[in-house]
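Q: What changes when phosphoenolpyruvate is included in the input?
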Amino acid sequence: MSTRQFFVGGNWKLNPTSLSKAKELVEVLNKAELDPKTEVVISPPALYLLPIQAAVTNKQILVSAQNSFYKESGAYTGEISASQIKEAGLPYVILGHSERRTIFHETNEVVALKTRAALDAGLKVILCIGETLAQRESGETAKVCEEQLSAVVKQIKAEEWSNIVIAYEPVWAIGTGKVATTAQAQETHVDVRAYLAKAVTSLVASETRILYGGSVNAANAKDLAAQQDIDGFLVGGASLKPEFIDIINARK
Ligand code: PEP
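A: The predicted holo structure follows.
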């Protein structure tokens, strides 16, 4: 087993439908017995970030934004800057989620600029990458992941990778109930690590955490967590359910 700390993030997306329901989720986590070896991050919608941060009493649980813009200020209606997130005391931001890439047309270059700005502001980044079903079926998985990462590699120095956690999330597995097999996930994680070794350094390749995301639940988490190159999970749907605790404890 590697020295990389196991990491489990809960991406709440645009859920739940009210702040009181969001606080109920936090209450469950506050009371739970969480594996102290797991780094735990929850990511509520923007307007809930501050009240949820205040509601978290278990200091093991960190709070992350789901997005940040690459400019610090100006005429960018609707955007939130990385420095505003940092000033609010939030340590992490998720960038490059496939929903942002697909629905909001974020290109690899935009994701890279956002990553640059987030690191400049002092945030840590959960950087999402992953292929569509058509890309997997045409054998392009490694190439797509490399292209997504290469835009970021161009923007950051080797020593900054310690502030990035990569989340490999095959688009076909997100919210679909179709989880990648442990072999498919492990194989892509190995490819991503090999790319980091080639494009950055072997130290960065061995130290960067690579999470798997895509229909992770309590039933499949243990097998996935036992894979050599799977360092944790980014969890969508199941992070809104009590089974999130089992996922946090998948290596216990
Ligand atoms: C996600 O949104 O990052 C995700 C992995 O979603 P789900 O777990 O619901 O597939």
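Observations recorded in class: The chain has a mean pLDDT of 97.
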